[in-house]
Amino acid sequence: MRWKLVFKITIVLCCSHQLQAKSQDVHFQSKMPANWLTTTPVTTESLELKLMRLILAQSSELTPHFHQVNFTKASELTRTQADSCMASILKNPKRQAEFIFSRPLSAIEGLKLYLPKDSKLHTKLQSKLKLWGGQVRLRELLLTEPDFVVGLDLERSYGADLDLLLKEKVIRRSLYFKQSGAQIAQLWPMLQQHRVSAVLEYPFMLATTDATLLQGYGVAEAEPLQLAYFACNKSETGQAIIDKLNQSIAALAGTQAYLDLHLEAVPAERRQEFIQNYNKLMLGKIN
Questions:
Q1: Is 50 exceeded by the pLDDT of residue 252?
Q2: What span, in angstroms and rounded, lies between the C-alpha atoms of 106 and 97?
Q3: Are the beta carbons of 241 and 85 closer than 8 angstroms?
Q4: What is the largest CA-CA distance in the chain?
Q5: What's the average model confidence in pLDDT over 37-66?
Q6: Rounded to two decimals, what is the model's pTM?
Q7: Helices then strands (H, E): number in the chain?
Q8: What's the Rg (C-alpha) of the chain?
Q9: In 3D, which of 197, 224, 204 has the Cα closest to residue 121?
Q10: How does DSSP classify residue 136?
């Protein structure tokens, strides 16, 4: 009888050890350094990073590793390595064919066209807004204003509709692409020096700049609310990682703390509309 008890205890300890050892490594090909998750967050940390901290704290079955690479390299590694993923990625048809996507991890206000407040182009632009219903029609602007140059990041997606627009040959002369992978941080000096007229950027990214020196305009071709996702390798391992991330997002997305992080970057007068869209797109609620 005693040997049976010892045998059962051994089995339990063995199985328990195997369960504990089942943590899944996930390699995030990202803009963050290897020690990012263990360092104290800076006060200007972006929404995407704040949300990732919450999600990964919830994902106890995942062991994250971070590799600081540009988007081109990140895409290549995620395509070829079973345990590789990227975070805060926008969906487009090409990417959906290459990667497995999670449920949305964030919903952010759509892109705006930002000009320096001292730009001489405001008067001309504001006169056009009266004809355009209050939003910039980017294609029409670039076709009718030959000296207007927009600074863009070569490695980013700006949403399916804008990505198609930005590939049109007739407006390429009005676009300046910089391969930065670091959002506005690399384009900001060019904007200050008036080497470009404007940049396309998300409002929440302006935490890394002096937003008081900029004036933003809504863009007709941009989505009013943009969703971002985790994207992982198309494999059984990638799907297993996505499943675990989805469980964490599902547990967090409906909490007040998760919503409050989103609202930090939304002006008070737009919060009610944002919450309605958030509930619909992130939680599947129809108000």
A1: yes
A2: 21
A3: yes
A4: 91
A5: 91
A6: 0.76
A7: 12, 11
A8: 22
A9: 197
A10: B
